[in-house]
Amino acid sequence: MTPAQPLLPALLARLGPLQVTARKVMEGVLTGLHKSPHHGQSVEFSEHKEYAPGDEIRHIDWRAFAKLDKYYVKRFEMETNLRALLVVDASGSMAYGRGAMTKLQYAAICAGALAYLLSRQGDQVGLCIAGDGGTWEGVREFLPFASSPTHVQELLKILDGSQGRGATLLPAALDFAAEKAGRRALMIVLTDLFDATDRSIPALKMLRSRRHDVLLLQTLDREELDFPFDDPTRFLSMEDDRSIEAQPRQIRESYLAEMRRFLETTRKELARADVEVEQIATDAAPDRVLLKLLARREAA
Description:
This protein folds into two domains: 9-35 and 80-299, von Willebrand factor, type A domain (Rossmann fold); 43-78, no CATH class. The chain is 41% helix and 22% strand. The chain has ten helices and ten strands. A hairpin with a 6-residue loop joins strand 8 (233-236) and strand 9. The two termini are 32 Å apart.
Protein backbone atom coordinates (compact mmCIF):
# COMPACT_ATOMS: atom_id res chain seq x y z
CA MET A 1 0.00 0.00 0.00
CA THR A 2 1.37 3.43 -0.89
CA PRO A 3 0.92 6.44 1.43
CA ALA A 4 -1.26 8.10 -1.23
CA GLN A 5 -3.95 5.44 -0.97
CA PRO A 6 -6.86 6.39 1.30
CA LEU A 7 -7.58 3.99 4.15
CA LEU A 8 -11.15 3.15 3.23
CA PRO A 9 -13.39 1.53 5.88
CA ALA A 10 -13.64 -1.72 3.89
CA LEU A 11 -9.85 -2.08 4.12
CA LEU A 12 -9.65 -1.08 7.78
CA ALA A 13 -12.32 -3.62 8.69
CA ARG A 14 -9.96 -6.38 7.48
CA LEU A 15 -6.89 -5.18 9.36
CA GLY A 16 -7.86 -6.52 12.77
CA PRO A 17 -8.10 -4.93 16.24
CA LEU A 18 -8.46 -1.23 16.96
CA GLN A 19 -4.81 -0.91 18.03
CA VAL A 20 -3.83 -1.77 14.44
CA THR A 21 -6.44 0.25 12.56
CA ALA A 22 -6.13 3.39 14.71
CA ARG A 23 -2.33 3.40 14.38
CA LYS A 24 -2.64 2.90 10.62
CA VAL A 25 -4.96 5.87 10.37
CA MET A 26 -2.60 7.97 12.53
CA GLU A 27 0.30 7.13 10.20
CA GLY A 28 -1.81 8.10 7.18
CA VAL A 29 -2.65 11.44 8.77
CA LEU A 30 0.98 12.20 9.60
CA THR A 31 2.08 11.27 6.10
CA GLY A 32 -0.37 13.81 4.71
CA LEU A 33 0.28 16.57 7.22
CA HIS A 34 4.09 16.38 7.09
CA LYS A 35 3.99 18.01 10.50
CA SER A 36 2.11 17.40 13.72
CA PRO A 37 -1.25 19.01 14.53
CA HIS A 38 0.25 20.38 17.76
CA HIS A 39 3.75 21.53 18.56
CA GLY A 40 4.01 20.63 22.25
CA GLN A 41 3.23 24.22 23.05
CA SER A 42 0.12 26.19 22.18
CA VAL A 43 -0.41 29.93 22.37
CA GLU A 44 -3.77 31.19 23.55
CA PHE A 45 -4.96 34.81 23.31
CA SER A 46 -5.68 36.11 26.79
CA GLU A 47 -6.49 39.85 26.89
CA HIS A 48 -5.55 43.36 25.66
CA LYS A 49 -3.31 45.93 27.30
CA GLU A 50 -2.43 49.45 26.22
CA TYR A 51 0.72 49.63 24.09
CA ALA A 52 3.92 50.65 25.90
CA PRO A 53 7.43 51.21 24.51
CA GLY A 54 9.16 47.85 24.21
CA ASP A 55 6.02 45.89 23.31
CA GLU A 56 6.22 43.95 20.05
CA ILE A 57 4.60 45.86 17.21
CA ARG A 58 3.42 42.62 15.60
CA HIS A 59 1.06 42.11 18.55
CA ILE A 60 -0.77 45.43 18.05
CA ASP A 61 -4.49 44.90 17.53
CA TRP A 62 -5.24 47.14 14.56
CA ARG A 63 -8.98 46.51 14.77
CA ALA A 64 -8.98 47.87 18.32
CA PHE A 65 -6.98 50.90 17.13
CA ALA A 66 -9.53 51.60 14.37
CA LYS A 67 -12.36 51.59 16.91
CA LEU A 68 -10.69 53.32 19.87
CA ASP A 69 -7.93 55.41 18.27
CA LYS A 70 -5.49 53.95 20.80
CA TYR A 71 -2.83 51.30 20.44
CA TYR A 72 -3.49 48.03 22.24
CA VAL A 73 -1.43 44.85 22.14
CA LYS A 74 -2.65 41.32 22.63
CA ARG A 75 -1.41 39.40 25.63
CA PHE A 76 -0.91 35.67 25.27
CA GLU A 77 -0.83 32.73 27.65
CA MET A 78 1.52 29.84 26.97
CA GLU A 79 0.16 26.37 27.56
CA THR A 80 2.89 23.76 27.50
CA ASN A 81 0.52 20.83 27.06
CA LEU A 82 -2.83 20.40 25.45
CA ARG A 83 -5.47 18.44 27.35
CA ALA A 84 -8.03 16.67 25.17
CA LEU A 85 -11.06 14.66 26.22
CA LEU A 86 -12.61 12.26 23.70
CA VAL A 87 -16.35 11.88 24.32
CA VAL A 88 -17.75 8.94 22.35
CA ASP A 89 -21.50 8.29 22.11
CA ALA A 90 -22.20 4.56 22.60
CA SER A 91 -26.00 4.71 22.42
CA GLY A 92 -28.03 2.23 20.38
CA SER A 93 -28.22 4.40 17.26
CA MET A 94 -24.41 4.35 17.01
CA ALA A 95 -24.58 0.56 16.49
CA TYR A 96 -26.14 1.10 13.07
CA GLY A 97 -24.11 0.29 10.00
CA ARG A 98 -24.78 -1.80 6.90
CA GLY A 99 -21.44 -1.06 5.28
CA ALA A 100 -17.97 -2.12 6.37
CA MET A 101 -18.48 -0.93 9.95
CA THR A 102 -20.96 0.63 12.34
CA LYS A 103 -20.96 4.29 13.27
CA LEU A 104 -19.50 3.40 16.66
CA GLN A 105 -16.68 1.37 15.12
CA TYR A 106 -15.89 4.24 12.78
CA ALA A 107 -15.96 6.75 15.64
CA ALA A 108 -13.68 4.47 17.70
CA ILE A 109 -11.10 4.38 14.89
CA CYS A 110 -11.14 8.18 14.61
CA ALA A 111 -10.92 8.57 18.40
CA GLY A 112 -8.10 6.02 18.64
CA ALA A 113 -6.10 7.72 15.88
CA LEU A 114 -6.53 11.09 17.59
CA ALA A 115 -5.40 9.57 20.90
CA TYR A 116 -2.25 8.27 19.21
CA LEU A 117 -1.58 11.68 17.64
CA LEU A 118 -2.09 13.57 20.88
CA SER A 119 0.02 11.20 22.94
CA ARG A 120 2.77 11.26 20.32
CA GLN A 121 3.05 15.01 20.89
CA GLY A 122 3.16 14.63 24.67
CA ASP A 123 -0.36 15.99 25.08
CA GLN A 124 -2.71 14.53 27.66
CA VAL A 125 -5.81 12.70 26.49
CA GLY A 126 -8.79 11.26 28.34
CA LEU A 127 -11.84 9.24 27.31
CA CYS A 128 -15.51 9.37 28.22
CA ILE A 129 -17.90 6.73 26.82
CA ALA A 130 -21.44 8.13 26.87
CA GLY A 131 -23.97 5.41 27.62
CA ASP A 132 -25.95 3.53 30.23
CA GLY A 133 -24.82 0.99 32.81
CA GLY A 134 -21.92 2.98 34.26
CA THR A 135 -21.02 4.33 37.69
CA TRP A 136 -21.94 7.90 36.72
CA GLU A 137 -25.14 9.15 35.09
CA GLY A 138 -24.76 9.03 31.32
CA VAL A 139 -21.18 7.71 31.51
CA ARG A 140 -20.39 4.05 30.90
CA GLU A 141 -16.59 4.38 31.07
CA PHE A 142 -14.20 7.17 32.00
CA LEU A 143 -10.42 7.38 31.70
CA PRO A 144 -8.72 10.50 33.14
CA PHE A 145 -6.14 12.61 31.33
CA ALA A 146 -2.68 11.09 30.78
CA SER A 147 -0.22 10.68 27.92
CA SER A 148 1.83 7.51 28.47
CA PRO A 149 1.87 4.65 25.92
CA THR A 150 0.23 2.32 28.46
CA HIS A 151 -2.52 4.89 28.99
CA VAL A 152 -3.22 5.03 25.26
CA GLN A 153 -3.38 1.23 25.10
CA GLU A 154 -5.93 1.22 27.93
CA LEU A 155 -7.93 3.89 26.11
CA LEU A 156 -7.92 1.81 22.92
CA LYS A 157 -8.97 -1.28 24.87
CA ILE A 158 -12.01 0.57 26.23
CA LEU A 159 -12.92 1.88 22.78
CA ASP A 160 -12.53 -1.56 21.22
CA GLY A 161 -14.86 -3.12 23.79
CA SER A 162 -17.59 -0.50 23.56
CA GLN A 163 -20.97 -1.57 22.21
CA GLY A 164 -23.79 0.66 21.05
CA ARG A 165 -26.92 0.14 23.14
CA GLY A 166 -29.62 2.00 25.00
CA ALA A 167 -30.93 5.55 24.81
CA THR A 168 -28.86 8.63 24.07
CA LEU A 169 -27.33 9.96 27.29
CA LEU A 170 -24.90 12.39 25.69
CA PRO A 171 -26.11 15.55 27.50
CA ALA A 172 -25.42 13.99 30.92
CA ALA A 173 -22.04 12.76 29.69
CA LEU A 174 -21.11 16.26 28.50
CA ASP A 175 -22.03 17.70 31.91
CA PHE A 176 -19.78 15.07 33.48
CA ALA A 177 -16.98 15.86 30.99
CA ALA A 178 -17.12 19.57 31.82
CA GLU A 179 -16.86 18.80 35.53
CA LYS A 180 -13.92 16.41 35.10
CA ALA A 181 -12.02 18.63 32.67
CA GLY A 182 -12.00 21.60 35.01
CA ARG A 183 -9.81 24.18 33.28
CA ARG A 184 -9.81 24.75 29.53
CA ALA A 185 -9.50 21.61 27.40
CA LEU A 186 -10.12 20.40 23.86
CA MET A 187 -13.40 18.47 23.86
CA ILE A 188 -13.72 16.11 20.88
CA VAL A 189 -17.26 14.71 20.71
CA LEU A 190 -18.06 11.80 18.37
CA THR A 191 -21.78 11.14 17.95
CA ASP A 192 -24.58 10.98 15.39
CA LEU A 193 -26.38 13.60 17.50
CA PHE A 194 -29.63 11.63 17.31
CA ASP A 195 -31.28 12.85 20.51
CA ALA A 196 -35.02 12.76 21.02
CA THR A 197 -34.71 15.20 23.95
CA ASP A 198 -32.99 17.92 21.86
CA ARG A 199 -30.63 18.53 24.79
CA SER A 200 -27.35 17.62 23.10
CA ILE A 201 -26.86 20.89 21.20
CA PRO A 202 -27.42 23.03 24.33
CA ALA A 203 -24.96 20.75 26.17
CA LEU A 204 -22.33 21.33 23.47
CA LYS A 205 -22.91 25.08 23.74
CA MET A 206 -22.47 24.78 27.51
CA LEU A 207 -18.97 23.34 26.99
CA ARG A 208 -18.05 26.30 24.80
CA SER A 209 -19.44 28.78 27.32
CA ARG A 210 -16.98 27.33 29.84
CA ARG A 211 -14.14 28.25 27.45
CA HIS A 212 -13.46 24.72 26.25
CA ASP A 213 -12.42 24.27 22.62
CA VAL A 214 -15.20 22.05 21.24
CA LEU A 215 -15.00 19.88 18.13
CA LEU A 216 -18.01 17.81 17.07
CA LEU A 217 -17.41 14.89 14.71
CA GLN A 218 -20.99 14.09 13.70
CA THR A 219 -20.80 10.52 12.42
CA LEU A 220 -23.53 9.20 10.11
CA ASP A 221 -24.03 6.10 7.99
CA ARG A 222 -24.32 6.64 4.24
CA GLU A 223 -27.78 5.00 4.25
CA GLU A 224 -28.98 7.55 6.80
CA LEU A 225 -27.86 10.32 4.45
CA ASP A 226 -29.09 8.87 1.14
CA PHE A 227 -32.06 6.66 2.20
CA PRO A 228 -31.47 4.14 -0.64
CA PHE A 229 -34.38 1.84 0.25
CA ASP A 230 -37.02 0.80 -2.31
CA ASP A 231 -39.03 -2.17 -1.05
CA PRO A 232 -41.60 -1.98 1.77
CA THR A 233 -39.50 -1.87 4.93
CA ARG A 234 -39.97 -2.15 8.66
CA PHE A 235 -37.70 0.35 10.41
CA LEU A 236 -36.69 -0.48 13.98
CA SER A 237 -35.53 2.01 16.59
CA MET A 238 -32.13 1.00 17.99
CA GLU A 239 -32.68 2.86 21.25
CA ASP A 240 -36.16 1.62 22.27
CA ASP A 241 -38.85 -0.85 21.15
CA ARG A 242 -40.55 1.35 18.57
CA SER A 243 -40.87 0.37 14.92
CA ILE A 244 -42.61 1.65 11.82
CA GLU A 245 -43.56 0.04 8.52
CA ALA A 246 -43.22 2.29 5.51
CA GLN A 247 -43.04 2.50 1.74
CA PRO A 248 -39.59 4.11 1.26
CA ARG A 249 -40.48 5.60 -2.11
CA GLN A 250 -43.39 7.47 -0.54
CA ILE A 251 -41.39 8.98 2.31
CA ARG A 252 -37.95 9.43 0.70
CA GLU A 253 -38.42 13.04 -0.31
CA SER A 254 -39.70 14.15 3.10
CA TYR A 255 -37.05 12.08 4.91
CA LEU A 256 -34.19 13.60 2.89
CA ALA A 257 -35.59 17.11 3.40
CA GLU A 258 -35.75 16.51 7.15
CA MET A 259 -32.19 15.14 7.18
CA ARG A 260 -30.91 18.19 5.30
CA ARG A 261 -32.71 20.45 7.75
CA PHE A 262 -31.25 18.54 10.71
CA LEU A 263 -27.67 18.79 9.39
CA GLU A 264 -27.97 22.45 8.43
CA THR A 265 -29.57 23.41 11.74
CA THR A 266 -26.82 21.60 13.63
CA ARG A 267 -24.10 23.43 11.70
CA LYS A 268 -25.70 26.86 12.07
CA GLU A 269 -26.69 26.50 15.73
CA LEU A 270 -23.23 25.36 16.78
CA ALA A 271 -21.38 27.80 14.53
CA ARG A 272 -23.10 30.64 16.38
CA ALA A 273 -21.66 29.21 19.60
CA ASP A 274 -18.19 28.85 18.02
CA VAL A 275 -18.35 25.04 18.10
CA GLU A 276 -16.49 23.43 15.20
CA VAL A 277 -18.55 20.80 13.36
CA GLU A 278 -17.30 18.11 10.98
CA GLN A 279 -20.10 15.99 9.50
CA ILE A 280 -18.75 12.59 8.42
CA ALA A 281 -20.16 9.66 6.47
CA THR A 282 -18.84 6.25 7.49
CA ASP A 283 -17.83 5.35 3.94
CA ALA A 284 -15.19 8.12 3.95
CA ALA A 285 -11.53 7.25 4.60
CA PRO A 286 -10.86 8.21 8.26
CA ASP A 287 -7.27 9.28 7.54
CA ARG A 288 -8.47 11.74 4.89
CA VAL A 289 -11.21 13.06 7.18
CA LEU A 290 -8.77 13.69 10.04
CA LEU A 291 -6.08 15.07 7.72
CA LYS A 292 -8.50 17.65 6.33
CA LEU A 293 -9.69 18.53 9.83
CA LEU A 294 -6.23 18.91 11.37
CA ALA A 295 -4.83 20.81 8.39
CA ARG A 296 -7.71 23.28 8.68
CA ARG A 297 -7.07 23.74 12.40
CA GLU A 298 -3.35 24.27 11.69
CA ALA A 299 -4.17 27.04 9.24
CA ALA A 300 -6.68 28.76 11.52
